[in-house]
User: Fold these one by one.
Assistant:
Number 1:
Amino acid sequence: MKLSKLLLGLMVGCAALAVNAQTVIKFSHVVAVDTPKGKASEFFAKKAAELTKGKVKVEVYANSALYKDKEEMEALQMGSVQMLAPSLAKFGPLGVKEFEAFDFPFIFDDTADLHKITQGPVGASLMAKLEPKGIKGLAYWDNGFKSFSANTPIKSAADMKGKKFRIQSSKVLEEEIRSVGGIPQVMAFSEVYQALQTGVVDGTENPISNFYTQKMHEVQKHLSLTNHGYLGYAVIVNKKFWDGLPADVRGQLEQAMTESTAYANKIAQEENDAALEGVKKSGKTTVYVPTKDERLALKKAMAPVHSKMADRVGKDTLQTIYKATGFDPNAL
Ligand code: LMR
């Protein structure tokens, strides 16, 4: 009698636990909270709690608090963290080199061009390539176009010659810097400020929202609004974790992601504009807007990157992008 009561009590206890069990999603990223990605991940956490009625708790870890660039990808594959939003450049080192197509200089004229790819069949087929790596791609989130900074003015390729530029770990970006005679230095995002401050590197490239929120304007005297290449994100999850979620919860999270993507893409430009205002107001960095001719000259100088690196990302991927956006490196 006593034993059966005990068993009954245990069963009730377990059922209560199962009902109350909350799934925790650790979402790690490397940028500041006050950026397009930082804000969109917080938005997702709120939406996920709302739509799953508290069944899922998303814990967001900003500013490399959990992992640096390369480590976070390994952590996702191992399941120590469930969700990330790495920049598209970060998939090359994982062996999915096609993602480096996004790193080609001047390949997208504007966000409308970019969306033809991220929101079209190429974007979907690139995401599918992550699955054999144990990763499921959920969405593309915008950030923006990159600008170059240094302690000396940058108006032309000649101004970059012999200077060390921090880049993300991408072979296409290495070639981009080499095309203008610079020296590429791959480095984790969290280390850039100090590297600029101590002179380990002379300059860097990033959208202004990253530049400003990492306080790079404190240690870079010049920022040239070159808009020479794109930086944005793929929101990804550990596939086994994702597939193991109850279907209704997964559906609610997909809905939360759809809404968060719309939000991310809506605020990206606004955040970059506000960051630029912040840089200007600080008075610490001189902001230069290249003339049409200067920008065209830079575009020409970097054009050989396209033929040199076509094999790395696959000629077909590249041609499909050219076709969609109308970019023709040979016409320069
Ligand atoms: C970088 O490393 O420069 C970027 O990937 C940072 C980010 O995630 O925006």
Number 2:
Amino acid sequence: MGSKIIGVGMYAPPKIMTNNDFAKMVDTNDEWISTRTGIRERHIAEPGTATSDLCLEASRRALTDAGVDPKELDFLVVGTLTPDMPFPSTGCFLQMKLGADRAYAMDVSAACSGFVYSLSVADALVRAGRGKKGLVVGAEILSTVVDYTDRGTCILFGDGAGAAVIAECEEGDGVLSCHLHSDGSLWELIHCPGGGTVDPCNPGTSTVRTNFIRMAGNETFKHAVTRMAEVSLEALERNGVTVADVDLYIPHQANQRIVKAVGKRIGIPEEKVFVNLDRYGNTSAASIPIALAEAKEKGRYSKGDLVLLAAFGGGLTWGSALLRM
Ligand code: COA
């Protein structure tokens, strides 16, 4: 048996920050941000919001789309780099809030590759007989770890959540394959040094501003293009299909220039590439499931279509998944 996505949903908090809002905070402007990144606005959660709150909204929509009751769920997997707390997992908070009493719950930490990693875990759980129905969520409140004095990073990120209900299906349908890779030696390119055991962020022990994202933008950019292209082609090769067979390509929504460069490398026409980063910015683990939900709503894929997902993020981590919808 395999697993298949049978419902999707997304949620973004209502508050929007435009490029002009950033121009009032740091030395930047709408023209620089739009041309270098393609981002025009991003959603930002109100203080006091938990990541599991965003998960809950997205999950309810995905469950409605699938026609599945939370009590039918066997497991929940949440990909996030901004959990509610170091522990318990955001998955456990989501389980409680959803009332998914029968489900076991966990988080997966793979930064912006969090959804593809979580989907791969969920698919493997179904194949291993550890459940027949589950929820896979990517959710972030990146505004809690963004340094709003650093113009090189703060303009990039947004908050949101996306969810997919997966269920057991016949082999050869649904998730055809997942491909995951990591390179921990490049951890420094994009990371958040504080808040863990290395720098616990206790009063008096933490060094200044360690609880924020640090990034070498230019280097990260190059790895994102190379790795997402590679892993996309890997998925096609494994399944004996070509890029011409792909109906929709959903790459991680980090930067329009990255998306364009990856699309060019794998040779997919622009009209088959889904882009919504202009309205959400980079929402890390949430970017692909938000895009999946929007793509469905806009009729960008239908039953039987081949959809290719490709992710890249801190770790470094990257991965792809080929789906028969
Ligand atoms: N507004 C105006 N100028 C800015 C700026 C901003 N928001 N951010 C950086 N700059 C400046 C830099 O200071 C630099 O100035 P200098 O030449 O005087 O030193 C100049 O713009 C060029 O900086 P650079 O970092 O080379 O720009 P870039 O074209 O690489 O674009 C990013 C920067 C961050 C947009 C781009 O590198 C990127 O998107 N990287 C990948 C990030 C990413 O996707 N991370 C997540 C991966 S999951």
Number 3:
Amino acid sequence: MIIAPSLLAADHGKLAAEVERTERSRADWLHLDIMDGHFVPNLSFGPDVARIVRSHSRKLFLDVHLMCSRPEILIGPFAQNGADLVTVHAELGEKVEGLIWKIRSLGKKVGLAVNPPTSMSAAQPFLKKIDLLLVMTVNPGFGGQPFLEEVLTKIQQAYLWRKAQNLSYRIEVDGGIKFDTAAECAKAGADTFVSGTGLYKHRNMKWAVEKMRKAVTKAHRQD
Ligand code: DX5
Ligand code: ZN
């Protein structure tokens, strides 16, 4: 199981300290939510923040989620500034094939994200080419939103496809992930959990990460 705090929910006024706190929490990954004000109605941060994050954490795997209409201009800069995995959105349609190739050509892991209203069929053609399938559990753009229960069937679908085709992509969820909703997603088949407010709001982040890890390990489907 992978626990991936989302930096979006950290205190940006003390970024270095928050990165170090995340590392001390024994989280596995650090999730960077990159928003362009076009694909989603919000702006977050750019490649320079990835460089700063990387300089304050050697251990954390940087999971970069590009909620951007033109990720082709950002994949290179994030790859050069410490990204380990780059996720693009299936909603970009015919651009997806080229984006996957570009991420791969830079030696990075590849993620593909699907928004709640988007059919899982948008991701199906790419399942053999990705390392991670991100099933969004809120409509992207803001942290602290309520979890959308109706997405659970999409997580189940991702799990069944992976099993049927003997593939190995990770199944990640992002948005409204707290201890209880994380367990629901694990039960449906998720194994990688992005959580922003659900983790950073706890003074003892190590306790929160451990509690989430225990919850998802206990609930994860075994079939
Ligand atoms: C949505 C963002 C959020 C963020 C996590 O665009 O991707 O889902 O990562 O937000 P919380 O965990 O606070 O709901
Ligand atoms: Zn995200």
